Amino acid sequence: RRRATRVTAALFGHVVKRGRLRLARWTVAGGALCDVDLDLRKAQIHRQRTSVAIFVGLGNVDVYLPENVNVTVTGLAIGGHRREWGEDVERPGAPQIAVRAISLFGTVDVWRVPADMPGDYGKVTRQLQGRDRQLPP
Asked: Of 23, 18, 65, which is closest to residue 37 (Cα–Cα)?
């Protein structure tokens, strides 16, 4: 049995965490002067509610989530960005993931990715950005 993914961090580097990760009650991701890709699209979610805490300074953290979970994004961005991409639809009975982000001159992007969207991270992000531009105001 896999151990739960608890901490993903980088300092002056780039970290990619993906695959059949096991999510328990909480997970922390972040770092400084870094780039972190936390891909939870194939994660095993064993609880109805889980939270992902993100702390970043002068860096970038991207969280990729499957579109079939309920996601709430909260937090604080000082001199940086906190953005959500993809369709935000309430799904009764689906697992709840609370993303709590704190960034200091950093960027936190949360990507809700449809299951049928192929491609690497660059292609997925361009497709989701294009969809958001087409949405009515």
From this structure: 18
